Structures are given as structure tokens and as C-alpha cells.
Amino acid sequence: MRRSRPGRPGWRCSRSGCYRWWRTFPWDSPGGPPVWPGRRAALPDRIRGKGIGIGLAAGIKLTPLIFIPYLLFTRRVKAAAVSALTFAVTVGLGFALLPHASAVYWGGQITRPGRKPFHLDNQSLNGVILRLTHAGPDAHAYWLVAAVVVGTAGLATSILASRRGHELLGLVACAATGLLVSPVTWSHHYVYVIPALALAAYGPRRLGYRILGAALVVGLFGWWPLPIGNQGGYGPKAQLRPRGLLLLAPNRGNQGAVEFTWHGLELIAGNYYVLTLLVFIAATACALVLTRRLGPERAQSASEPDAVRAARPPGVVR
Known about the structure:
Strand order of the largest sheet: 1-2
Order of helices and strands: HHHHHHHHHHHEEHHH
Mean pLDDT: 79
Structural class: mainly alpha
Strand content: under 5%
Largest sheet: 2 strands, antiparallel
Number of helices: 14
Low-confidence stretches: 1-36, 299-303, 314-318
Shape: globular
Oligomer: single chain
């Protein structure tokens, strides 16, 4: 068991998450509203109004809707009901203020977003399928099937993690699932990488794993000095500027349809956000299943809730 840092009990972490850190870090700051739904979901059940933030966020951007079934199936029925009711109120206000636009949106446009969703910035399953099929007539059907399969598997994984007591792991897996199945997930919606960084850096018991996990998250989602050409893609003569690795794929500044010409490494570079989330969810599911198959003593220790580990006095090993 890792000891707390002197004078900072909120940093005591377990192998699978930083329960106290997640509950006390100021995600309600102005800079972090997109992460707020997950932060609210982690609050104790005794907090009044738990679920309101998720409902409001879902009314603005649908991705946080994934947290409602997550709350429901992790036995936080009241919070799930509050979230659903709050979301319904936001939809009702939309119809009251903008009836025509709301009717068009909920009448079918919700699953068929405009603004050329095949562009590089759309890092969702829908964006990947649109790019691979060149926005063909069957792309929508392919996405619906993929969204159901991945959504079910991802949500089941997050629920299992939560029921094993690994709340932060469950929240990150749930957020990753929501990003994948959303019709449009712009690259800046990946602010959920912040709690993922906490999970990677402070979750594993061994220091080497923590360093490797943090380096992997920062390496994949950080901004690095890269020579990106004016039309996107690698430009040997371009000036080094801090950019995300995603821009190594040609995109012409999201003008035109150059994404349909990708091949080889360009396909990996242009879709690696989605590929990373798929690998994360699959690895999490495998880890939870393998933990279940351990011997009784090791399985009980591995699945011990984060809150129980965080509350144990420093130096006490189970």
C-alpha cells in the first residue's frame, strides 16, 4: 500500500485509482466544465442535487448522457433519475424557445450531423467510418451497429469497474465510451484525458508502471514541436510549433475531403484518438476479467474498493 504524502491525505491512491484526489480536485473551475459530469458522478450519494450537473451538461452536449445509465446500473438510481429529469427539462426549454430547430434536430438530424463530420477533427466511431467509406450511403448503418456494440461493451466495462470499487477507472471508461459512440466528438472534447492522466500516474502500485502510464497519456495527447505543413501533414521545411500528433495526418485545414485519400500510416495517425480509446476499453475489460480469475486472496485484494484503500492509515498493509 502506498503511503500518503505528508500533509496531503487527498493524494493517497490505490492501484486502480485516486479516489480522494478525484473527489477533492476542483473540477468545477471555469476551465473544466466538460469534465464536470464525471466529477459530479463521483460525488457521494448523500450530496443533494447529485445528477443535476450531468443533466445540464447533456442538454448542452449529448456526450454526457452516457453517465445516466452508468449511474443507474451502478445502483445510484436517484442520481440517474435527477439527471434524466434535468435533461428532459433542457429539451423542453429548447422546444419552447426554438420549436422548429428543436423539431428538426430531434427528428433525425441528431444522428446525421452536418459540417462535414468526416473531417479529421471528428474523432468518433462515426468520423472513422465516414472516412473509411468515403461518406458512402451505408456509413450511417455501419455506425449504428458499431455504436451499439462498442457502447454496450464499454458501458458494461465501466459498470463492472465501478462495482469492483474502482470508481475512477469506471468513470474514465464510461467517458471514453461516450466519446466513441457520439455522432461527433471534436478533438477538443477529449478533455477527459485529464482524469485519465490521474488514473495512469497515480493508479498502479509500481513506480515504473506509473511513469509509463503518465508518459503514454502525455505522449499521445500532448502538444509537441512538430513541422506541420500549411495543409496539414508532415512538412520537413515547416517551422516547429507545438501541435498535436493528430495533425500529422493530411487535412488541408479541414477544407475539402483529403481524408478520403489517406492510406497506410496516415489512416493510423488520423484516427489514433479512436484507436487509443478502443484499446483502453478492451484492456480494461480484459484486466477486470483476469482479476476475477485470480485466486480468492489475490482477487479479493485486487478488487478492494478504492475508497477502502484510501481510508486505511499509512503503512498498514492488508
